[in-house]
Every structure is written in structure tokens, then in C-alpha cells.
Amino acid sequence: MSEASPGAWVAERSAQVKGGGRRPGDTEQSTLPPTRLGLEVKGLRVVYGDFVAVADTSFRVEPGASFGIVGESGSGKSTVLRAICGLAPLSAGSVQLVAAGTGTVAPPSPGSKPFRRLVQMVFQDPYGSLHPRQTVDRILSEPLAIHGIKDEQTRIERALDDVGLGGGFRFRYPHQLSGGQRQRVALARALILQPQVLLLDEPTSALDASVQAEVLNLLEDLRERLGLTFIMVSHDLAVVTHLCDDILVMRRGQTVERVSAADLAARRVQQDYTRSLMQASGGFVRASSTR
Fold first, then answer.
1. What does the pLDDT read at residue 198?
2. Which pLDDT score, from 0 to 100, does residue 128 have?
3. Stretches in the chain below the pLDDT threshold 50
4. 223 — phi, psi (to 5°)?
5. What's residue 102's pLDDT?
6. First CA to last CA distance, the chain
7. Which of 12, 49, 94, 192 is the most exposed place for a label (fewest CB within 10 A)?
């Protein structure tokens, strides 16, 4: 088994962008566009029966930017991500990829194979998002086979190396990995297709504090080096403030306000609900008692 040098996969992604989207071993169907892509959502609405999960949500994320969505449980933030990638039905609205400097790209439809290569999702639970009876090698090779991408051995080794695991983890099963290692495998599975947009559904919520910091630093480093666009959902305002440039606050499926990370950190917000989220994120404070 050959070993990939550190950062080789990142260098290949940069070369792929400069070289017009073609990589060694790619078929015509697997060729990526040569420019960075962002995402625009207009009037997104998701309805299940009589229940409106998301009501007329709109936002635009510029190529290479990091965008956060926060809110209480049931606010519709994860449903927005699922609707973007085609896992939840759109009742109204549109999802479009946007390219730097050229306006709107005519995108493949959400849920289609070309769209899923460009827009990948990392799910919340690293224990439930990986097949328990498949090795890491099988988990990572499956998306390559689906999209007709060759040279899978080299690509798997490079993907594992780039998320800090290495080839020694290739033939392990999920139960042989820690929570942080499982989430790195889930991240490698999303990145192995070299997407343009990464949807992150609370990727650190199931991890302890020290592992959270490792995964967040890894995500930030990969975004800067690969030029990825992030859309991240989280309950944790500290996490999104650290990783994201702008933040959308949601409640009961509706947009409350959009605020920059700098303004959120400085507590310069407009809505009472956002202030209540900030207060809740401070954690439990024991009331002083008088004796």
C-alpha cells in the first residue's frame, strides 16, 4: 500500500481548480467546474401535511464563505440543510449554486447526482451516520463508485491523511473508532468527492469539548486551503461564532434575524429571541443564596 504525503490531496484540489476542473482518473461525468461555488436559497418552504417546518427562508452564501444557522430544537435549521441537499421535499422556493464573479450558475437540481457531488453533507451523529458492518475503506469507496471516479486507492489514502487519520484506519470498522475518529471518517467521506459546498449538521455536538476543538480547527483549516463554502447548523453560538462569518437565527421555521459573527460576539443584536439564545448559551448559573 502506497503512502500519500501530507497535504497531497489539498494540493491536488488546488491544481484541479487551476487546471479547469479535470483530475487524473476522472471520467467526463465526474469533472468538476473550474471555479469556486457558493449557494443561494430563495423563499425556501418545507411543509409536512399541515405542519410548516420551514417558512419562506432566504439567504445567500458567497463562494468560500462560512455561514451559520442557529436556533432552538425544532426551529427548522437542520430541515433547511436537508432541503438543500434533496433529503427533504421543497414545497416552494429554489436552491441555486452561485459562482464567484459570474452571477448564478445553471445548477443541477437538488437531489440529483451532479448536485450531490458538488454539495455534500456531514451529519450530526458520527455513531449513526456510518454503516456499522462496513470498513472505512468500503465507506469511502462507495461514493467514488457511484460517481464513476477512478484511482480509488490513492484517493482514499489521501482523504484519510488529510483529515488526520492515515492509512492505518482504512480497514477498521466504526465500532473500533472513537467518536472524534468517526466524525473524521464522515468528513473524509464528504470531502473525497471534492465538493464545492459542505453542509455541516451540528458536526461536533456529539463530541466532548477537547475533540470538538480538534474537529473545528480541522474544518477551518480545510476550508481555507480548499476554498470550500460552509453552511453550518449548531445550537452552540460559540461554535458558529468561531467558524462562521454570518449567522442566520431561526425560530419555529422562520427567520428571526441575520447577524455577523462580530456583531454576535459583541452582543450587537436586534431581536429579543437572539438575546435569549445568547443568555442560554452561557450555561447554568446557580442563584446566590442568603443564609
1. 93
2. 83
3. 1-14, 16-31, 284
4. -65, -45
5. 57
6. 70
7. 49
Give me the long-range contacts of 13-18 (CB less than 8 A, separation at least 24): 13/194, 13/225, 13/226, 13/227, 14/225, 14/226, 16/194, 17/227
SS3 content of the chain, % helix, strand, coil (to 5): 35, 25, 40
pTM for this structure?
0.81
Beta bridge partners of 37: 99
Nearest to 206 by CA among 182, 229, 224: 182
Predicted local confidence at residue 106, as pLDDT: 60
Note the pLDDT of residue 127.
79
What's the pLDDT at 208? 74
| Cβ density class 71-84: b for 16+ within 10 Å, e for less | beeebbbbbbbbbb
The residues that bridge with 57 in the sheet, in sequence order, are 44
Query: Please, what is the Cα angle at 158 between 226 and 139, to 5 degrees?
Result: 105
| Nearest to 94, CA basis, from 109, 111, 76 | 109
Looking only at the bridges linking them, the beta strands covering 229-234 and 197-201 are parallel
The predicted pLDDT at position 110 comes to 67
Q: In what order do the strands lie in the sheet with 92-99?
A: 51-61, 37-48, 92-99, 103-104
Show the cell assigned to 122. Answer: 456531514
Distances 2 to 19, 157, 166 between C-alpha atoms, Å: 25, 8, 11
Closest CA to 232 of 70, 82, 89: 70
Sign of the Cα torsion 167, 171, 174, 175 reads negative
Question: Looking at residue 247, what is its pLDDT?
Answer: 94
> Are the CB atoms for 63 and 229 separated by under 8 Å?
yes
SS3 159: helix
With beta carbons less than 8 A apart as the criterion, state whether 203 and 215 touch: yes
The predicted structure's pLDDT at residue 143: 92
- The x, y and z cell numbers of residue 11, run together, are 494540493
Cα–Cα distance for residue pair 231/12, rounded to 1 Å = 24
